[in-house]
UniProtKB/TrEMBL annotation:
Keywords: ATP-binding, Cell cycle, Cell division, DNA damage, DNA recombination, DNA repair, DNA replication, Ligase, Magnesium, Metal-binding, Nucleotide-binding
Enzyme Commission code(s) on record: 6.5.1.1
Reactions it catalyzes: ATP + (deoxyribonucleotide)n-3'-hydroxyl + 5'-phospho-(deoxyribonucleotide)m = (deoxyribonucleotide)n+m + AMP + diphosphate
Gene Ontology molecular functions: ATP binding; DNA binding; DNA ligase (ATP) activity; metal ion binding
Enzyme class: ligase
GO terms (BP aspect): cell division; DNA recombination; DNA repair; DNA replication
Organism lineage: Bacteria, Pseudomonadati, Bacteroidota, Chitinophagia, Chitinophagales
InterPro entries in the cross-refs: ATP-dep_DNA_ligase, ATP_dep_DNA_lig_pp_1105_fam, DNA_ligase_ATP-dep_C, DNA_ligase_ATP-dep_cent, DNA_ligase_ATP-dep_CS, DNA_ligase_ATP-dep_N, DNA_ligase_N_sf, NA-bd_OB-fold
Species of the source: Niastella yeongjuensis
All residue ranges annotated as the ATP-dependent DNA ligase family profile domain in the record: 332-462
Descriptive protein name: DNA ligase (ATP)
PROSITE patterns noted in UniProt: DNA_LIGASE_A1, DNA_LIGASE_A3
Domain of life of the native organism: Bacteria
Record's keyword annotation contains Cell cycle: yes
């Protein structure tokens, strides 16, 4: 655990990609073999399931350090992170004069020198390796509460504050690390002398870190024995320059950018698998696709978008949300939220990896395949025809009426690459919807913003009343967040736990991608991806939009 904790803090204190790459490469060169497998799993989203509640952790910490729960809550509201609060409150073993490492504003912060130095622990013995703790977490699922408590209290006391923080993050299911999978793959490539695209493919799919060795995971055999293994998705960057910079329009294929779940449909060894872009195996979530098990040939992999689809029309994404997260899909769910698949690409044909083919060739093969299947819900993602860039610009304006987010531009000669690449695929999204609102509630953020009020609730007018309708916590600069924080502290009206009611004086423009009716919200609406687009210092609270404006947006764009 010591090496892993040091890696996490090295990554967390570095702002340079090359430094992060070096830290990862060094770790993969020297770490325990089983720990390396778990790091690959953790960094690619395979986190342990949460088996202990935050309430239990807080109570056990209070009992261990003899602290009243109200004081723990005050500490938590100041620090802004449960894992870090516990890490700071429990003294290190053999160090009764405990003081947390270099704090900045109450946050657990380490300088680069500290992050790269050996962990301190008052001369304690080396803690267990990472894989020991993570595999113990898995066993806790069936453990009794006293057994869980004993294990956790013992672990807290044998770890130092840095390791304890990482332990808590893993235990609580809130482990996140600011490192892309691409960076991790590049670090592995330095260690095992394999091409990054090969590594990205081999670490994908349905493998168990507890039973898979490092050598097995990265061997060619892993792609041969795991018939469910998906290919790494090819992702696009947002279009930055003018269309004319792309060259001749005839070199490009344009498609609608659909708002659904990107997925791969795989048929191998007489089995059907459905993977999401986040590498979740979601076959059981979409029983409609089961017919493909008999329709598709073995060795077929489709890339496409899972969309709510009925009677030839793509529906609003909020229809699909009624099925996401459900453990069991009922007949009623299937009727109320039917899905289709809009196929973008063909990645494997008759068992051959054809990602190196040009897009135009893959598209021709895809059209032949989809046409032969004759399934009404399985559609080719339509190509948007255009003769020049001006014509395509005009066509893009129809996006929202089709429940599309804009356009995708793909070079017709392009191969299907790994991860996010520049040059051959671009996404050209339409401008978001916006509305002006006033801030009415604020609470402190998390992480580096735990001492600032950065999470806000916004309201629109409804006659003489203000009706809250959304929350947002991104979109301002650090300087602007500091200014709003100062306003909140000077203009708080009421306190409800960590939440402050503030004078409704600051007006912001809120941007969002979609709007849907909602019975759970007082306003009757829910926004998709709300964020602050700008601080409207030029407007007064009387200038904000109304609830009626939101309802009109719902009528226009919420269908």
């Amino acid at each position: 655990m010591r090496e892993f904790a040091q890696l996490i803090f090295s990554l967390g204190t570095s702002t340079k990609t090359n430094d992060k790459l070096q830290a990862l490469s060094t770790y993969f060169s020297h770490a325990d073999e089983k720990d390396k497998v778990w790091v690959i799993a953790l960094f690619s989203g395979r986190r342990p399931r949460r088996t202990v509640s935050g309430t239990q952790l807080a109570a056990w910490c209070c009992e261990l350090v003899d602290l009243p729960i109200w004081l723990f809550q005050e500490c938590y509201h100041t620090v802004g992170d449960l894992s870090e609060t516990i890490a700071l409150l429990i003294p290190d073993k053999n160090n009764t004069d405990f003081s947390p490492p270099a704090e900045i504003g109450g946050k657990l912060r380490f300088s680069r020198e500290e992050a790269n130095s050996p962990s301190t622990g008052g001369g304690r013995e080396e803690a267990h390796p990472l894989h020991y703790y993570v595999e113990q977490f898995q066993q806790l699922e069936k453990a009794t509460e006293p057994e869980k408590k004993t294990f956790i209290l013992q672990s807290w006391q044998e770890l130092n504050s840095r390791e304890r923080f990482v332990f808590n993050k893993l235990l609580s299911g809130t482990f996140r690390v600011g490192v892309s999978q691409k960076l991790m793959v590049n670090a592995l490539a330095r260690t095992v002398q394999l091409d990054p695209s090969v590594i990205a493919h081999r670490i994908s799919g349905n493998w168990d870190p507890a039973t898979t060795s490092f050598d097995q995971l990265l061997s060619e055999q892993s792609t041969q024995t795991d018939h469910s293994k998906p290919y790494p998705f090819y992702l696009a960057y947002a279009l930055e320059g003018p269309l004319q910079d792309l060259g001749e329009p005839s070199d490009w294929q344009a498609e609608w950018k659909w708002d659904g779940i990107r997925g791969q449909i795989i048929k191998r060894n007489d089995q059907l698998f459905v993977w999401s872009r986040g590498e979740d195996l979601i076959t059981d979530k979409f029983p409609e696709y089961s017919i493909l098990q008999s329709k598709l040939e073995n060795g077929t992999v489709l890339d496409g978008e899972i969309l709510p689809y009925k009677e030839g029309q793509v529906l609003n994404f909020n229809v699909l949300q009624t099925r996401i997260g459900r453990k069991n899909i009922t007949k009623k769910n299937l009727q109320e939220a039917p899905v289709g698949l809009f196929a973008y690409d063909l990645l494997e044909l008759q068992g051959e990896d054809i990602r190196h083919w040009a897009l135009a060739e893959r598209r021709a093969a895809l059209e032949t395949l989809i046409t032969s299947l004759q399934l009404p819900w399985l559609q080719l993602s339509p190509i948007v025809t255009f003769n020049n860039w001006e014509e395509l610009t005009t066509t893009r304006e129809q996006s929202r009426s089709l429940n599309s987010e804009g356009l995708m531009l793909k070079r017709r000669s392009s191969a299907y690459q790994v991860g996010r690449k520049r040059g051959d695929w671009w996404k050209w999204k339409i401008d978001p919807l916006t509305i002006d609102a006033v801030m009415v509630y604020a609470q402190k953020g998390t992480g580096r913003r735990s001492n600032l009020y950065t999470d806000y609730t916004f309201a629109v007018k409804d006659g003489d009343k203000l009706v809250p309708f959304t929350k947002a916590y991104s979109g301002l600069t650090d300087k602007e967040f500091a200014q709003v924080d100062s306003f909140v502290k000077k203009n708080s009206l009421e306190k409800f736990g960590p939440v402050r009611t503030v004078k409704p004086e600051l007006v912001f423009e809120i941007a969002f991608e979609g709007i849907a009716a909602s019975n759970r919200h007082k306003s009757g609406v829910a926004l998709r991806f709300p964020r602050i687009s700008r601080w409207r210092t030029d407007k007064l609270p009387n200038d904000i939009n109304t609830l009626e404006d939101l309802k009109q947006m719902l009528e226009l764009y919420g269908k």
